[in-house]
Write a structure and sequence with these properties.
Strand order of the largest sheet: 1-2-3-4
Number of helices: 3
Order of helices and strands: EEEEEEEEEEEEEEEHHH
Distance between the termini: 65 Å
Largest sheet: 4 strands, antiparallel
Number of strands: 15
Number of domains: 2
Helix content: 10-25%
Length: 234
């Protein structure tokens, strides 16, 4: 049975542990809804639904406060299931778009969460998708648009309190070896590192793959002349 003690709050069409489905395409003052219970699954006491897309796929998290266990979930055509993550004790899904990309947060240690994106069966720490050394630590992602824009909150080094953020998708820029959005002389050292220490480069600039300028499938010595040409043209 549904435990109403824990299911009294909701927001818009997103309710605590409940999916409310429109019975017609149009929304009016007299709109009726079909209600679907979303958990909790066995082993959890609470379920919170926080995001939904146009296909009725809903996301949220399961919670058991007796053992401090939170687990992101998705409800879709195949039913209701937790989202598999690399974390042990804490993850929350907060938004989903029509492409099935899910955003939320997951713990990186016992006291810190990072904003994350789930897509293609993988969990991506969004801190690895912004410029290294920015001083920003993205803590939680709340929503993702159909075009991949992401909003959430973060903490900034040396400043007090949380800061809202908007992540804007950026198309790959050939030669931008430090992924700061421009090709300039600051890309020289990262380019050399990609050639000579590819593992270290990948750790320093995760998912920054702009060095394959001759379409060989890798960043190698064949990319030197094209890279120099890009620098001279900048």
């Amino acid at each position: 049975m549904w435990d109403h003690e824990y299911t009294t709050s909701g927001r818009a069409v997103r309710a605590l542990g409940v999916l409310i489905t429109l019975s017609t395409a149009a929304v009016s003052l007299g709109q009726r809804y079909v209600l679907t219970e979303l958990g909790p699954l066995p082993g959890y006491r609470h379920s919170y639904a926080l995001g939904v897309n146009d296909f009725g796929e809903a996301v949220g998290y399961l919670y058991d406060n007796s053992v401090w266990d939170m687990r992101a979930f998705i409800y879709h055509g195949n039913g209701f299931e937790p989202i598999v993550t690399d974390v042990v004790t804490f993850s929350q899904a907060r938004g989903i778009n029509n492409a099935g990309q899910i955003v939320g947060e997951a713990n990186v240690d016992w006291s810190t969460t990072h904003a994350v994106l789930w897509q293609g069966g993988e969990m991506i720490d969004l801190n690895t998708r912004i410029s290294p050394g920015s001083g920003w630590e993205l803590a939680s992602a709340a929503a993702i648009s159909e075009n991949g824009y992401i909003v959430g909150y973060a903490f900034v080094e040396g400043e007090f309190g949380a800061h809202g953020f908007l992540l804007t998708p950026v198309a790959p820029l050939p030669g931008d070896m430090n992924c700061d959005g421009v090709v300039d002389f600051a890309d020289i050292n990262p380019f050399v590192q990609a050639l000579t220490e590819p593992a270290t480069y990948a750790d320093t600039y995760p998912a920054c793959e702009n060095g394959d300028l001759d379409d060989s499938g890798d960043t190698d010595f064949g990319d030197i002349n094209p890279f120099v040409a890009l620098l001279l043209a900048a």
